[in-house]
Design brief:
It contains 16 helices and 23 strands. It is an alpha/beta fold. It folds into three domains: 92 residues, Urease, subunit C, domain 1 (Roll); 99 residues, Diaminopimelate Epimerase, Chain A, domain 1; 296 residues, TIM Barrel (Alpha-Beta Barrel). Helix 7 packs parallel to helix 8, helix 9 packs across helix 10 and helix 10 runs parallel beside helix 11. It is globular, with a radius of gyration of 23 Å.
């Protein structure tokens, strides 16, 4: 029986009944006592002096793409610092040379943002052909809803009868020919020509990536890894790789997989695999994810009005009402949570209308449906979200990254509740906090700072963007602790430093409530199940 007492620490429990504590007694992976009397310490207990460090419940990212993040970090070129298309060309050429990537191989890149390029346009096939016409060049935009490819990728992919040239998600030039820009689900169909990993290769990528994630203070992540592949065999391999790591005792943190699907047959297949795998303390599947619309950056988030800077565009919906109802109905019949990526108000309308019908059919069973992003809700939708007990899964780092873009894309008269974290809270909406990594940095402290300050790292805009939407530090911490635990129905076992909860703890080198720079605090270590 493992017993330990953590003492001499600044402990914030995130438990309103007892907000702070002086010590924590842990036994067999669970917290058994808060503020134990020194005379009550059981024999054989290991007493650990925390030397005044700050302890919090382990951070919990409620929505990221872990495998995508890992593949980017391990195999791809990061284009976030590119300020021009010439930079994109230069950085990618340097990546090819540095890694000695032979002609005929694929070259992956991510994080380009045309809003920050001096040309103010997206790189097309002509630009990428300047990198190489002998390699397959595939570069994703920062939002991961748009990608640029060179002529070699187009030639290979469009030779496949499955990928129809008239597809709305294949960009065209003024002559109606593919311009090298691809959108939404076509991205994975193109990538299918490149990406296929064995279960063992997936395990190795996961181990490396999870080590990096744990170093940022995360003890739990909810991750959508299905979005990176279009083949069902690859998706099944991902689930098996997670299970294998658990069986080998190699999962350093808790994983909750979100099964993103675009076809009903895939949903049925993955749910069968879920039943086969079962549940354990480190790897679970509690959520099905669907992508209802796109992104603001690509003008594909579905709006009930036109874009301010593109009057001919209102975005896209990826599912018909009938298709989405069928998926939601199946999920409720299997008692599994549904989470919908919905940025625009038209996409939010679609899912709220369907959830209302579904909940009525299933006698208001509480499966805590979620809207991931929920960036542009209007007042009637917020009221409906409260009525239907819909959770908003938000990404605080989107504010410093996107505020200039949002003001450009969305007319002033439609901005009442744009990135409206405080308004959602005030209206009783439960919030969970996440990074959407690799879209944003997965460091929770960066997200917490962004929620509190609503500025970039260099303090722009002065005073914070829409400062009335700033969260208190306590509210921001709740996003990544109690809020994320609630989002998957685990609020009675994780998210707090409390008796009978998992001993999942993050140790900081300074008190978060008095630190001058939240995202400059060092993560000393994490404990998962007390280890």
């Amino acid at each position: 029986m493992e017993k330990q007492l953590l003492k001499n620490a600044v402990i914030y429990t995130m438990d309103d009944e007892k907000p702070q504590a002086e010590n924590i007694y842990i036994e067999n992976g669970k917290i058994k006592k808060i503020d134990m009397n020194i005379n009550e310490i059981p024999e054989g207990t290991k007493i650990i002096d925390m030397e005044g460090k700050c302890l919090l419940p382990g951070f919990h990212d409620s929505h990221m793409h872990m495998l995508n993040t890992g593949i980017n970090l391990i195999e791809a070129v990061d284009l976030k610092s590119a300020e021009s298309i010439d930079d994109i060309i230069k950085f990618t050429k340097e990546h090819i040379e540095k890694n000695n990537i032979p002609a005929g191989n694929w070259v992956l890149g991510f994080n380009w943002n045309h809003e920050k390029l001096e040309e103010k346009r997206m790189p097309d096939k002509n630009d990428l052909d300047k990198i190489s016409t002998e390699h397959y060049i595939f570069l994703k935009r920062i939002c991961i809803h748009i990608a640029s490819v060179n002529s070699k990728v187009l030639e290979l992919s469009l030779s496949d009868k499955k990928i129809q040239l008239e597809n709305k998600n294949i960009g065209k030039d003024k002559n109606g020919k593919p311009n090298g820009l691809i959108y939404e689900e076509v991205i994975n169909e193109f990538l299918e020509k490149r990406l296929s990993y064995t279960v063992e290769e997936l395990e190795n990528i996961m181990k490396k990536t999870l080590k990096l994630i744990a170093a940022k203070g995360l003890t739990v992540i909810q991750t959508d890894d299905m979005n990176f592949f279009s083949k069902d065999t690859d998706r099944l391999n991902i689930l098996q790789a997670f299970q294998n790591l658990y069986n080998k005792g190699k999962l350093p943190i808790r994983i909750f997989e979100q099964l993103q699907i675009s076809e009903f047959s895939t949903l049925q297949l993955l749910m069968k695999k879920r039943e086969e795998l079962g549940e354990n303390e480190y790897f679970n599947i509690k959520t099905v994810k669907v992508l209802l619309d796109g992104s603001l950056g690509g003008w594909t988030a579905a709006l009930n009005h036109s874009y301010a800077d593109a009057p001919d565009k209102t975005g896209i919906l990826n599912f018909s009402d009938e298709e989405l109802y069928k998926i939601c109905d199946y999920c409720y019949s299997k008692k599994i949570q549904i989470a919908c990526h919905a940025i625009g108000d038209r996409a939010i309308d679609q899912i709220l209308n369907i959830i209302e019908k579904i909940k009525e059919k299933y006698n208001n069973i509480d499966l805590r449906p979620r809207i991931v992003h929920c960036q542009l809700p209007i007042y009637r939708q917020i009221k409906k979200m409260k009525e239907l007990e819909v959770i908003a899964d938000i990404q605080p780092m989107f504010v410093p990254s996107d505020y200039e873009l949002a003001e450009k894309r969305i007319d002033k008269k439609y901005r009442d509740n744009i990135y409206a974290w405080k308004i959602l809270l005030k209206n009783g909406i439960s919030l969970s906090g996440s990074s959407d990594s690799p879209v944003e940095d997965f460091a929770p402290l960066s997200g917490i700072r962004a929620a509190v300050e609503r500025t970039t790292e260099d303090g722009k805009p002065l005073g914070g963007w829409r400062p009335f939407e700033k969260l208190t530090l306590k509210e921001a911490l709740e996003l990544y602790t109690t809020g994320s635990a609630y989002s998957i129905g685990m609020e009675n076992i994780m998210g707090k430093i409390k008796e009978e909860y998992y001993a999942d703890i993050v140790v900081l080198n300074e008190d978060i409530y008095i630190a001058e720079n939240i995202d400059r605090i060092n993560i000393e270590k994490i404990l998962v199940n007390g280890k």
